[in-house]
Amino acid sequence: xxxxxxxxxxxxxxxxxxxxxxxxxxxxxxxxxxxxxxxxxxxxxxxxxxxxxxxxxxxxxxxxxxxxxxxxxxxxxxxxxxxxxxxxxxxxxxxxxxxxxxxxxxxxxxxxxxxxxxxxxxxxxxxxxxxxxxxxxxxxxxxxxxxxxxxxxxxxxxxxxxxxxxxxxxxxxxxxxxxxxxxxxxxxxxxxxxxxxxxxxxxxxxxxxxxxxxxxxxxxxxxxxxxxxxxxxxxxxxxxxxxxxxxxxxxxxxxxxxxxxxxxxxxxxxxxxxxxxxxxxxxxxxxxxxxxxxxxxxxxxxxxxxxxxxxxxxxxxxxxxxxxxxxxxxxxxxxxxxxxxxxxxxxxxxxxxxxxxxxxxxxxxxxxxxxxxxxxxxxxxxxxxxxxxxxxxxxxxxxxxxxxxxxxxxxxxxxxxxxxxxxxxxxxxxxxxxxxxxxxxxxxx
Length: 445
Ligand code: PA5
Prior knowledge:
Mean pLDDT: 96
Oligomer: single chain
Strand content: 5-15%
Bound molecules: 5-phosphoarabinonic acid
Distance between the termini: 58 Å
Helix content: 40-55%
Radius of gyration: 23 Å
Strand order of the largest sheet: 1-10-9-7-8
């Protein structure tokens, strides 16, 4: 289903270079599938895809049907791996403006707890005025600051509106099966819960209830998403360079070894932007450690050709690009003729918009390659729930192989703690007094 074209890297790499990595790639693949690689206690995502509807999926669909019937708005609380996947799915499959024209029966879906902006919060409160709403709190640990703050506020808003018992029926918790503050809170309060398996890390959790409940509430067929992922799981277990996962993982590592330290992940489809955000976290948190890692950046073309295009064409030569091409366009739009032709664009009249978009893609890939920026093209036949599932599994599997090729544990994120520790100390969390004194003295307080 997914194809990888590396013809635009041959100026920088040779076929023998690529083939020489075969043993290494096979070993990285086996380290994942035999569960012998670093962090193997977090390999549970490998087995999430399924062709059968599980009892958990059935319960997710039932909860989603209830939320769709009784809510104008559904708020998904979470950050990082507990947020980016569901948002990527909904925007890719239903467009960036997916909330337009929605309401009870097909609720609007908004996200909260992914930042600390008061402006964002005030806007969210305004849009909830007079609306029926439900919330899902997604946090594996249950102690992440941003979603914890959003949970407090939204929970009280629900209780004020519907009373304690009424609110209970509108709060869903997606968390660890046994431990953590959110698990404890949900059990004490009697909220319905769904499980993030203990062996599935946040950024690999989109095919668990983390992604599936929000998708189902948005009206996406979660069985199709899982079927696409299950097919990908089967297909990408191939141990050769005919496997597009191998091509992607090995090529990006070879480019990195040749000094290409930054990967720009691009699409010519604005609704793909959040998928880029999900990809950025997946690769950034998985690979960026031990002083190593390709810096992941996302861009939306053609818009960003008018901002980043100059830099890519002629700036620092340490970049490569990965372009995701969705081959079949949505309903096409013909370009009109203009009798005056003052803009000189009548040469486009009669062509379809998608043809111009695709030509921009081909022309740009060639120009950037000529400028010393190699690119890989990852193509999917169309935008569909199955393609979304397949793309998720493709990039997750590629990320696992790629990180093992790099020699890092893809499944931890020790560096994320540094900001949290400083923030807790400065905000006066008990137990952080010594660090607080040190930081305050550095800040001249
Ligand atoms: O990938 C990860 O593990 C992280 O991005 C987490 O998902 C993120 O920090 C949120 O953590 P939690 O789900 O515990 O609130």
